[in-house]
Amino acid sequence: MSTHVPDLAGLELLVGIARHGSIGGSARAMGVSQQAASERLRAVEAQTGLTLVHRGARGSRLTAAGVVVAEWAARLLDLADEIDTAITGLRGDRNHDLTVWASMTIAESLIPRWLVQLRQRQLGEGRRPTAVSLNASNSGHVVEAVRDGVAQLGFIEGVRAPRGLRNTQIAHDDLVLVAAAGSPLSRRRSPLPPEEVAALQLTSRERGSGTREVLEAALHAHGLTMGDAVVELTTATAIREAVLAGSSPAFLSQRVVARELDSGHLVAVPTTGLDLTRVFRALWVGSEQPPAGPVRELIAIARAVDR
After folding, report:
1. Distance from first CA to last CA of the chain, Å, rounded?
2. What does the alpha-carbon distance between residue 111 and residue 130 come to, in Å, rounded to a whole number?
3. Does residue 93 carry a pLDDT above 70?
4. How do residues 213-236 score in pLDDT, each as one tens digit?
5. What is the CA 219 to chain-centroid distance, rounded?
6. CA-to-CA distance for 32 and 51, rounded, in angstroms?
7. CA distances (Å), 168 to each of 276, 288, 307, in order?
8. Within 182-271, where are the H helices?
9. d(CA 99, CA 122)
10. Buried b (16+ CB within 10 A) or exposed e, 244-262
11. For a designed S-S bond to 158, which of 43, 56, 210, 283 qualifies (C-beta 3.0 to 4.6 A apart)?
12. Of 182, 180, 184, which Cα lies nearest the Cα of 192?
């Protein structure tokens, strides 16, 4: 990463100036002195090589460059907040109020946002935020954890709802076959029929994952089975990075590879005759309705945020 990118504290100061209209207001919001804030701002401007703030007797305002950088910084700070919340969950506070297990795709790309929304809603209503313990695994292990009482709430992806558990659909997702730009398959223009897909040597998720289940079910509908994988990896992120590095193609969620497809580093290879749509589900044990409290709140947020 370029050395021009300031640390999070410097970005937070800049966003605060945009919101409060002064360096002093931003300093108070951050709990630092105005002198310390001014020094930090000078360091940020020196690091970026840009004048970000016009200072005047009536306050401070962002320059045109400052407005742009503050917009970028706000998005980065929101993402940092999501990561911080998710890491707190993964650490597994012993005093947690809610234990959640989630499949890898959901844990990597969706649940941090949901946990931030839950915390913000509870704080906004004057309630103590729920301490969440989060475990990321494949869908098969998530089902086992909920069924065994290890998890109070689970989130999985796949084709069918597991037996013996309550569940509700929260979103839909599509898998796409991706290859590294410049590879022979990336130049394919006509869609691959199921027979050719079955013959591919893929970079694949392990057995028990929702991603693999969807592909296997789509091929099974045509009397076909998936070929032997070149390599099996346990996270969607690992598979994406492997394909980017030149590994064989892979089926991944469009959510996971959207940025790489937009940039052209990965290419979506067309297929035909395969149903590659899957459902994201929330799982719990008990009555037909999710248990009242944080379980029901988090499910409602998941539905609303990803709609």
Report:
1. 33
2. 15
3. no
4. 999 999 999 999 998 899 999 888
5. 28
6. 22
7. 20, 10, 14
8. 194-199, 210-220, 236-244, 254-263
9. 17
10. eeebbbbbbbebbbeebee
11. 210
12. 184
User: At a CB cut-off of 8 Å and minimum separation 6, what does 255 contact?
Assistant: 105, 109, 110, 173
Residue that has been written with the tokens 């966003």 in this structure: 15
Torsions phi, psi for 124 (to 5 deg): -65, -25
Tokens 């997702």 — which residue?
A: 173
pLDDT tens for residues 118-160? 999 999 999 888 988 899 999 999 999 999 999 999 999 988 8
Reported confidence tier of residue 95, pLDDT bands at 50, 70, 90:
very low
Spatial CA neighbour of 218 closest among 230, 210, 206: 210
Whether this prediction's pTM lies above 0.70 is answered by no
Q: Please, what are the domains in the chain?
A: 8-78 (1.10.10.10), 80-166+280-305 (3.40.190.10), 171-279 (3.40.190.10)
